[in-house]
Amino acid sequence: MASKDTSISMSVIRRLPRYYRFLHDLKENGVQRISSRELAQRMGLTASQIRQDLNCFGEFGQQGYGYAVDQLYNELYHILGMDDLTPAIMLGAGNLGHALINHMNFANRGVKLEGIFDDAEHLIGTDIQGITIQSTEALEEFCDRQKPQLAVLCIPKEAAPRLVKRLVKCGVTAFWNFSHYDIAMQYPDVIVENVHLGDSLMTLSHLLKREK
Amino acid sequence: MASKDTSISMSVIRRLPRYYRFLHDLKENGVQRISSRELAQRMGLTASQIRQDLNCFGEFGQQGYGYAVDQLYNELYHILGMDDLTPAIMLGAGNLGHALINHMNFANRGVKLEGIFDDAEHLIGTDIQGITIQSTEALEEFCDRQKPQLAVLCIPKEAAPRLVKRLVKCGVTAFWNFSHYDIAMQYPDVIVENVHLGDSLMTLSHLLKREK
What we know:
2 copies of one chain form a homodimer. By secondary structure, chain A is of the alpha/beta class. Chain A has helices at residues 10-28, 36-43, 47-55, 69-79, 95-103, 139-146, 160-169, 183-186, 197-211; strands at 33-34, 67-68, 86-91, 111-117, 127-128, 131-134, 150-153, 174-177, 191-194. In chain A, strands 5-6-4-3-7-8-9 form a 7-stranded mixed β-sheet. Chain A has a two-stranded antiparallel ribbon with strand order 1-2. The longest helix of chain A is centred in the first third of the chain and has 19 residues, at 10-28. At the A-B interface, α1, α5, β8 and α9 of A face α1, α5, β8 and α9 of B.
């Protein structure tokens, strides 16, 4: 099933992984079909929003029957590219890098982590989940061979400009960015997903104070 | 300086930590004043958006002079509650919990982490950054004494419903939620900041595939 529309809004795209998670849970719990109304209730959305969102990608539900859970799950699996993993590397194998790899299953998120790079002497040569940490000196050669498209940045802000420049030159076009370096400002053509953990915590603390 | 307005939009609030970061960097680099135009350029915003955002909180800039960096930084410091840390606890001291504490400076984000709880035998009694990990059996007593207002959830989804119920009963009103449990659906009155790392990575991988 191909995408119906190439100009789907970012807010719809951002909801896709959430649909995928809910469908996965329904499937695990043996639910075979679900109405848009019931799915809406579980997800805290409206039924019409769900129908609109999913209609961006094709015709799924049937009037009076609802959605076939297995089928919709499989479609989302395909739409989210779970059947064609994106080759990726990680830069920075400190606490955060280690935790991300140990905590998350990258393959279950559509990504195949193939290399980890760090310049700390005590880390080079050790491995995380079977992937050996290499010096960033090996970056160009590795990229030339493996052609990673996505880079996870778990490096300090100061280290980011030079590394991102090298990565872009190596053909990396998507960044999962935990550093505070503003990649999109410098490279408007690459795709960036920023995760500013500190900003998120600050926002929460501020919201709590506003309540009082 | 008190807030001018109690109904400031979430998008403005979400930009505050970013302003704070940029002001911090300017201050560190010895910049004493900056025009809204120049700040806009650095942040990838428009000058009028910056003026509008900051006007929600008071009168800061001066026509023809711009913003006094030190003064604006101090105001944001106060607005974000950095001078009055929110007492907090963490639930779950696995890879992610460890990494968050070791990777981030909570106090620099307005939060004072006072307790860590986990039920894994091998973790209880060990410490992270000087805070000893306790069994969740001690939760009620601890909360009664320390009155934490914020909880960081680094626990699996399955463990969340029971723990959140206990935490809400203990008076916790804000959650930094790394689990996939939908707290806001069950407790509409608490403040929740969800961090769905997996969704973020999936979105990035999907965007990359759409480009092709």
